[in-house]
Design brief:
By secondary structure, the protein is of the alpha+beta class. The chain has one domain: START domain (Alpha-D-Glucose-1,6-Bisphosphate, Chain A, domain 4, 2-Layer Sandwich), CATH 3.30.530. It is about 25% helix and about 30% strand. It has four helices and seven strands; from the N terminus they run βααββββββαα. It has a seven-stranded antiparallel sheet.
Length: about 190
């Protein structure tokens, strides 16, 4: 199984970074390709992602900066991502490792790697108090009266095309022993 480990230096105390990343409610603010919304569900969280709901269980240890993610994107499918926050002078280093699941095509994993790069840049900007530019927000928001913000009621057209969506579609389908889609959809578009 392939793995990808990425790190980013963040000009913020490591404890602040840990507290932010370890709080599941913050996930939609930085992991925008994956998480549109999140809510508690028993001992885990349900993430509204481009392909639907994904169960995510956090395993954290503040003493050593560990924040691990145990994901269940489809029945019978388990995925794991490991992360850790380290002190780096007055700032911190955030390290994130993701794994290519069995049956995930290499090109899809590569796109997922690129999506994580953008998410880490977003995380850095948020924690350094800088504006987040260049990435459309999938973070849920509510007005003061609890209604969704403008434009958040409908999914954008490109949500189906995110690497995470494709990965779960392929892995989930294989776990249920369903046939994989062809390389082209019914409109002739390359998937």
């Amino acid at each position: 199984m392939k793995a990808d480990t990425q790190t980013i230096t963040i000009d913020a105390d490591w404890r602040k970074v840990f507290e932010f990343v370890a709080q599941p409610r913050n996930l939609p603010h930085w992991a925008r390709a994956f998480c549109q919304a999140i809510r508690p569900h028993g001992d885990a969280w349900l993430v509204t992602s481009p392909q639907g709901e994904v169960r995510v269980r956090y395993q954290t240890d503040a003493a050593v900066g560990v924040i691990d993610f145990h994901l269940t994107p489809a029945p019978g499918v388990e995925a794991f991502a490991a992360s850790r926050v380290f002190p780096n002078g007055t700032g911190s280093e955030y390290v994130f490792t993701q794994f290519q699941t069995p049956l995930m095509p290499d090109d899809l994993f590569t796109r997922q790697v690129h999506a994580l790069q953008q998410e880490l840049v977003t995380l850095k900007a948020l924690l350094e108090g800088r504006p987040v530019e260049g990435a459309p927000s999938c973070a849920p928001g509510e007005s003061r009266d609890g209604s969704p913000p403008p434009g958040r009621g409908a999914r954008s057209k490109n949500i189906r095309e995110t690497p995470y969506r494709e990965a779960v579609d392929l892995v989930g389908r294989d776990a249920r022993h369903e046939p994989r889609p062809s390389a082209h959809d019914s409109r002739g578009m390359v998937m």
